[in-house]
Amino acid sequence: MKITKNRYLQGFALTVIFLAIIRSIFPSIAKPTQATSAVNDSTTTEVMVEKISEKSDNSENSEKSESSKFSENSEKSEKSENSDNSAPSEISKPSEKPVAKSITLAQKPSRFFNADGTPVKNRIYSVPSFRETFPDSQSVQEVSAHKWGVRPVQNRPEAENRKAELVYVGSNPYFYVEKLKRSIPYLVPRASVLLQDIGRNFFDSLQVKGIPLHKVIVTSVMRTKDDVAKLRNYNGNATENSCHMYGTTFDICYNRYVTVEEPDGPKRRKVQNDSLKWVLSEVLRDLRKDKRCWVKHEVKQGCFHITVR
Fold first, then answer.
1. DSSP per residue over 6-47, as a string?
2. Cα separation of the two ends of the chain
3. Is the dihedral of CA 265, 196, 137, 225 positive or negative?
4. Burial bucket for residue 308 (CB in 10 Å: 0-12, 13-18, 19+)
5. For 268, which DSSP code?
6. Sign, Cα dihedral of 223, 224, 226, 228
7. pLDDT tens for residues 211-256?
8. Which of 18, 32, 96, 145 is the most buried (most CB within 10 A)?
9. pTM here?
10. Helix, strand, coil percent values for the chain (each to nearest 5)
């Protein structure tokens, strides 16, 4: 017989009504069975015995075995109620396993805290060689600049009309942008995110190494063609087709930093710039390894020349 949609709904409704009647007559069916309630409530015990006897196909031995289990459980529950020093019942045994696991996890050594709760101070490793770790030349960075950058602008008035393609880059809790003389504070969104991650990762590294917080200093951002022409008169590292013109590149100073202090708080202890440079080099190395950026260590200019990838 073909089951129509209406017949299916009618059968479903009748089934729900039937189950509701059964539950109203026998409320204990919806309650979880426990050993103690089985002993104290004889009616529940009889219902359970009847269900077990229905499942067994004319097997008297199974009825005896099940009834013996109920009697053993009742004896154990009576002993546990009358004596506090008796062994725990079978129901309490499964709950003991998660407790043992939680204790094991709590005793596991932490990466950030010692066993006594004091913070772990990680060592500063720096990089083996700045020149070998950050060797990305202009020709390498130029490929990514053309891929992710905008069309170069001639001068600042033209740059003002191109802000729809760029995002403003200003000082914030993670880095400091010093007064720009030969560049404008704009980057493509991809490069802006990279700069934010560098500042945030630098903060995290200082925190886990137990070093007072400092901000990195951004010394150069996007340059116009006129800026590059003027800069080449006295900066030998500036090229005619500079990656800075595409809004994908910025410079971070490695020999100067801004100390983060409370306005009315105590003065922070002095940290050598070399130590901060070592921490910054670790951050840039990891980001470069993750293929987030190209990095060139500029010796004469005292900065890391960085282009987003």
1. HHHHHHHHHHHHHHHHHHHH-GGGGSPP-HHHHHH-HHHHHH
2. 67
3. negative
4. buried
5. P
6. positive
7. 999 999 999 999 999 998 888 777 666 677 889 999 999 999 999 9
8. 145
9. 0.62
10. 50, 15, 35
